[in-house]
C-alpha cells in the first residue's frame, strides 16, 4: 500500500499524526477545544484516500451544523481536491434526508415528503392541544413538544410508548392521545419532523435489512465530529451503519469529541456516548490531544478557570505554545442598546485596525438579544448576518411562498395547502375550509385533491371558481416539476415559484398595498426568488424537492448571502466548532447565561457553563465579555445581574472598559455574588471613566430606528448626528435603502452610517 505523504503529516503534532495514521476498526479522539480534532478528521480522510484504502464514496463524515459541514468539506477539498465531491460530508439530518428521499417509499412515504420545522410542529401541537382541551391538564405546546422530541430521540414512538404508559393516570393518557394524534397527522401529511429524520432512518434500517445493507457496505469509513453531542437515536444510527462493517477488513469508525463542550443534553445528547465508546468498541484506540492551536494563553486561562468549576469531569488544561496575547475586554452597558453600541464601536475599531468583518463574531444566549444588536449595527452600517435561527424562513410571507411550493411537491401536506387556501384573500372562509376537509376525509382523498371537486361540493359560483383556479394553478405548477422526458432537465424552481407567486395574485396584492411593511415583504419574496436562482446555479439538476430539502435544513447556518465580508451573529449553540479572530460574548448575565430555564434542569448550570466555555474557546486573539444593567424584554425593562460565570474568570485577565462595579443610572439593583451592581467590584471601577461621556447620551438608550427616506447627501455636506455630533460627509456609496455615508465627525472620528436609518440631519 502507498503510505501517507509527509505533506499531509507535516502540519501535525505526534498524537495528531498517530490519530491520522491509526488503522483499526474504531478510534476515539478526545481533546479540549481547539486542539485540532476537526483537523485530524480531515487529514485522516485525506490519508485514507491517498493510500487508496478508501474511495471518496466510501467516506461518510458527520458533523453537527451545516456551517461546520461546509467548513469541513472545504478543508477536505483543500487537501484532496475534487475527490471530496463524491463524499458524504454532512449533518446527521442531511444524511438521513438523503437516505429517506431514496428509500422512504418502502415504508409508505412518498419521496416528496415535507420536513416540518419547529414552527410547523408548534402549530400542529397547538391545534391538537386545543382540540382535546389538554391545557387544563397542564399541557402546553412547549412541554408536550419537548417530551415528544425527547421520546423520539430515545427511539420511543407512540406505539412503543402506549405499551409503557400508565393509562390510569389521566395526564399520561392524555399525553398518549397527543403523541398519537401528532404522529398520525404527520404521517397523513407525508411529513417528518426533525427528530423523525433520524429516528425513522433507524427504523427503516432495522425493519428492512435489505435497504440498510447497501449503505453498510458503502460507508466503510465513518467519521463523526462533535461526538459528545450525539443523542441515542444518532448513536443507534451509527451502530446500524457500522455493525457488520466491523467485520469488514479495513473498515473504520472514528469519533472525536470533548465532553466539556457537550451542550445539547436538552435535546437528549448523551455524554455517556463517549464514556461508553470503549465498552461498545473494545478494540478502540484512544488518542488524547492536548495542545491548543487556536487561542492565546489568556483566552485559554479564562476557559480553563471557568470549566474547572464543573465537577464530574477529567481535569484537562488547555495550553498553547503561543504567547499570552491581549487581555480580555469587559464592558457593562446601561442597557442592551448601550451594550450593542459598544459592540458596534469596537467592531469598527477592529476593522480600522485591519481585522476583516468576517473574522468577527458576536454570540448571545437567546435570539431575543439580536434585536438591539441589529438595530445598532444597521445604524452603524456594519455589515452583518445572522446565522442559525431560520429567521428568514420563519417570516410569514416566506412561509406562504414555501407553502405554495410544498403544496406542489407534496400534495398530501394538508397543512401547506390550507395555509395558501385563502392567501392571498380569495373569499374562502373557515367554513368552506372545513367543508373541503370533511369532503376529503369522507372520500379518502387529499385536501388538495378535494379542491378539484369544488363544484360538486356545492359552493357558490364565486367561491367555487376561486378554489378551482387555485387547484388549476397547483396542477399547472406540478406539471412543470415533472420533466416531460426522463433525460430532460427539470424546469428551474425559480420559474415554478414565479408562476405561483404571480398567478396566485400574491405579488400583486403586496405591490398594490400601501403598507410599508408589505414593501419589505415583497423584497423578501424577491429574495426567495434569488435564493432559488442561486440554488439552480449550484445544482443544475436540482429539483423542487431538493430545494425544499435544502431550505428545510438550513437549521444552523448558511443564511442567504455568502459570508464574505460580514460580521457573524449567532447563538452560542450555533458557534460550536467554529473559530474567529475576535469574539464578542454578550449578555453575560444571570437568567441569560445561565439561562433562566436551566435552573429547573438537573445539571442545567453545568451545561450552561459548558456553553460559556464553548463561546470563550471560539476566539483566536481577542475576546470581549459584555453585559447590560437593564434589559428590555416583552416591552418591559428589568434590572439584570452579572452572571455568576463572570466571577469565575480570573480578574487579572479582564480589562474593564466599564465595569459592573460602576455607578450610573440603573445601578444599585440586585445582588449576585461578588459582582453586584453598585458594589465595588473586584476589577475596580477606575476604568469606568475611559469612555467619553458624550458617547453615553441617554437618548441613545431609548433611540428608535428612524426613516430618513430619500435624504440627499453628497460629499462635502455637513450633518449632525444625535450621538456623534457634527461632521462632514466624505463619501456616499450604495443605492436606495442601502446607501451608506462615510462621515468624518469633528470629535467622534470616522463612521459609516446607513443613511436611511441613521439619526442624522443635514445642516
Ligand atoms: P473544537 O473543539 O472547537 O471543535 P478542534 O479540536 O476541532 O476544536 P480544530 O478546529 O481542528 O480544533 O483546530 C483549531 C485550530 O488550530 C485550527 O485553526 C487548526 O487549523 C489549527 N491547528 C490544529 N492543529 C494544528 C497543528 N498541528 N499545527 C498548526 N495549527 C493547527
Ligand atoms: Mg472541531
UniProtKB/TrEMBL annotation:
Keywords: ATP-binding, DNA-binding, Helicase, Hydrolase, Isomerase, Nucleotide-binding. It is an enzyme of class 5 (isomerase). It catalyses: ATP + H2O = ADP + phosphate + H(+); Couples ATP hydrolysis with the unwinding of duplex DNA by translocating in the 3'-5' direction. Its EC number is 5.6.2.4. Residues 10-296 form the UvrD-like helicase ATP-binding domain. InterPro entries: DExx_box_DNA_helicase_dom_sf (IPR013986), DNA_helicase_UvrD-like_C (IPR014017), DNA_helicase_UvrD/REP (IPR000212), P-loop_NTPase (IPR027417), UvrD-like_ATP-bd (IPR014016). ATP binds at residues 31-38. One of its GO terms (molecular function) is hydrolase activity. It holds the Pfam family PcrA_UvrD_tudor. Residues 297-577 form the UvrD-like helicase C-terminal domain. Belongs to the helicase family. UvrD subfamily. This is DNA 3'-5' helicase.
Amino acid at each position: 500500500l502507498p503510505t501517507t505523504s509527509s505533506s499531509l503529516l507535516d502540519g501535525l503534532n505526534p498524537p495528531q499524526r498517530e490519530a491520522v495514521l491509526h488503522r483499526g476498526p474504531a478510534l476515539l479522539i478526545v481533546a479540549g477545544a481547539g486542539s485540532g480534532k476537526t483537523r485530524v478528521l480531515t487529514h485522516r480522510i485525506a490519508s485514507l484516500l491517498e493510500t487508496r484504502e478508501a474511495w471518496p464514496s466510501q467516506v461518510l463524515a458527520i458533523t453537527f451544523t451545516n456551517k461546520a459541514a461546509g467548513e469541513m468539506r472545504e478543508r477536505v477539498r483543500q487537501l484532496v481536491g475534487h475527490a471530496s465531491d463524491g463524499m458524504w460530508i454532512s449533518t446527521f439530518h442531511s444524511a438521513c434526508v438523503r437516505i429517506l428521499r431514496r428509500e422512504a417509499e418502502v415504508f409508505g412515504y412518498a419521496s416528496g415528503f415535507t420536513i416540518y420545522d419547529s414552527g410547523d410542529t408548534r402549530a400542529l401541537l397547538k391545534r391538537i392541544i386545543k382540540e382535546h382541551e389538554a391545557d387544563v391538564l397542564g399541557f402546553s405546546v412547549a412541554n408536550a413538544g419537548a417530551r415528544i422530541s425527547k421520546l423520539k430521540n430515545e427511539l420511543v414512538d407512540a406505539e412503543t410508548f402506549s405499551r409503557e404508559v400508565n393509562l390510569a393516570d389521566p395526564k399520561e393518557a392524555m399525553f398518549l392521545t397527543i403523541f398519537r394524534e401528532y404522529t398520525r397527522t404527520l404521517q397523513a401529511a407525508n411529513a417528518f419532523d426533525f427528530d423523525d429524520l433520524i429516528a425513522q432512518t433507524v427504523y427503516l434500517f432495522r425493519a428492512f435489512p435489505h435497504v440498510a445493507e447497501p449503505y453498510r457496505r458503502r460507508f466503510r469509513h465513518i467519521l463523526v465530529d462533535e461526538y459528545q453531542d450525539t443523542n441515542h437515536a444518532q448513536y443507534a444510527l451509527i451502530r446500524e451503519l457500522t455493525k457488520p462493517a466491523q467485520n469488514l477488513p479495513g473498515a473504520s469508525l472514528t469519533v472525536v469529541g470533548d465532553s466539556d463542550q457537550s451542550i445539547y443534553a436538552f435535546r437528549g445528547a448523551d455524554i455517556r456516548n463517549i464514556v461508553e465508546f470503549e465498552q461498545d468498541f473494545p478494540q478502540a484506540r484512544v488518542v488524547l490531544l492536548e495542545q491548543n492551536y487556536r487561542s492565546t494563553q489568556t483566552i485559554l486561562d479564562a476557559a480553563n478557570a471557568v470549566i474547572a468549576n464543573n465537577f464530574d469531569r477529567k481535569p484537562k488544561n488547555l495550553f498553547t505554545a503561543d504567547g499570552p496575547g491581549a487581555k480580555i475586554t469587559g464592558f457593562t452597558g446601561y442597557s442592551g442598546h448601550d451594550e450593542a453600541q459598544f459592540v458596534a464601536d469596537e467592531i469598527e475599531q477592529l476593522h480600522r485596525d485591519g481585522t476583516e468583518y468576517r473574522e468577527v463574531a458576536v454570540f448571545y444566549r437567546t435570539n431575543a438579544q439580536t434585536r438591539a444588536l441589529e438595530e445598532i449595527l444597521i445604524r452603524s452600517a456594519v455589515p452583518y448576518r445572522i446565522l442559525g435561527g431560520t429567521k428568514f424562513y420563519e417570516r410569514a410571507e416566506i412561509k406562504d411562498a414555501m407553502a405554495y411550493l410544498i403544496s406542489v411537491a407534496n400534495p398530501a401536506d394538508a397543512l401547506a395547502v390550507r395555509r395558501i387556501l385563502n392567501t392571498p384573500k380569495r373569499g374562502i372562509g373557515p367554513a368552506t375550509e372545513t367543508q373541503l376537509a370533511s369532503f376529503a376525509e369522507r372520500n379518502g382523498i387529499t385536501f388538495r385533491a378535494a379542491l378539484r371537486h369544488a363544484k360538486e361540493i356545492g359552493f357558490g359560483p364565486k367561491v367555487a371558481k376561486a378554489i378551482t383556479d387555485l387547484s388549476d394553478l397547483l396542477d399547472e405548477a406540478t406539471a412543470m416539476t415533472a420533466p416531460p422526458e426522463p433525460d430532460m432537465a427539470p424546469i428551474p424552481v425559480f420559474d415554478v415559484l414565479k408562476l405561483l407567486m404571480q398567478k396566485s395574485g400574491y405579488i400583486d396584492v403586496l405591490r398594490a398595498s400601501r403598507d410599508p411593511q408589505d414593501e419589505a415583504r415583497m423584497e423578501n419574496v424577491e429574495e426567495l426568488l434569488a435564493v432559488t436562482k442561486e440554488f439552480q446555479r449550484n445544482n443544475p439538476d436540482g429539483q423542487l424537492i431538493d430545494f425544499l430539502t435544502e431550505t428545510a435544513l438550513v437549521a444552523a447556518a448558511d443564511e442567504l448571502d455568502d459570508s464574505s465580508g460580514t460580521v457573524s451573529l449567532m447563538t452560542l449553540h450555533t458557534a460550536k466548532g467554529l473559530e474567529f479572530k475576535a469574539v464578542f460574548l454578550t449578555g453575560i448575565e444571570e437568567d441569560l447565561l445561565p439561562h433562566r430555564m436551566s435552573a429547573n434542569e438537573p445539571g442545567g448550570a453545568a451545561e450552561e457553563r459548558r456553553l460559556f466555555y464553548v463561546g470563550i474557546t471560539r476566539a483566536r486573539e481577542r475576546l470581549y465579555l459584555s453585559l447590560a444593567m437593564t434589559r428590555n424584554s416583552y416591552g418591559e425593562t428589568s434590572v439584570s445581574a452579572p452572571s455568576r460565570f463572570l466571577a469565575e474568570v480570573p480578574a487579572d485577565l479582564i480589562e474593564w472598559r466599564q465595569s459592573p462595579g460602576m455607578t450610573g443610572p440603573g445601578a444599585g439593583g440586585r445582588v449576585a455574588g461578588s459582582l453586584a451592581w453598585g458594589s465595588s467590584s473586584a476589577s475596580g471601577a477606575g476604568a469606568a471613566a475611559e469612555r467619553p461621556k458624550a458617547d453615553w447620551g441617554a437618548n441613545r438608550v431609548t433611540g428608535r430606528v428612524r426613516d430618513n427616506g430619500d435624504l440627499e447627501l453628497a460629499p462635502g455636506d455637513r450633518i449632525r448626528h444625535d450621538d456623534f455630533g457634527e461632521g462632514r460627509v466624505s463619501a456616499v456609496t450604495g443605492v436606495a435603502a442601502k446607501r451608506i455615508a462615510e462621515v468624518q465627525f469633528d470629535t467622534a472620528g470616522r463612521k459609516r452610517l446607513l443613511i436611511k436609518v441613521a439619526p442624522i440631519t443635514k445642516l
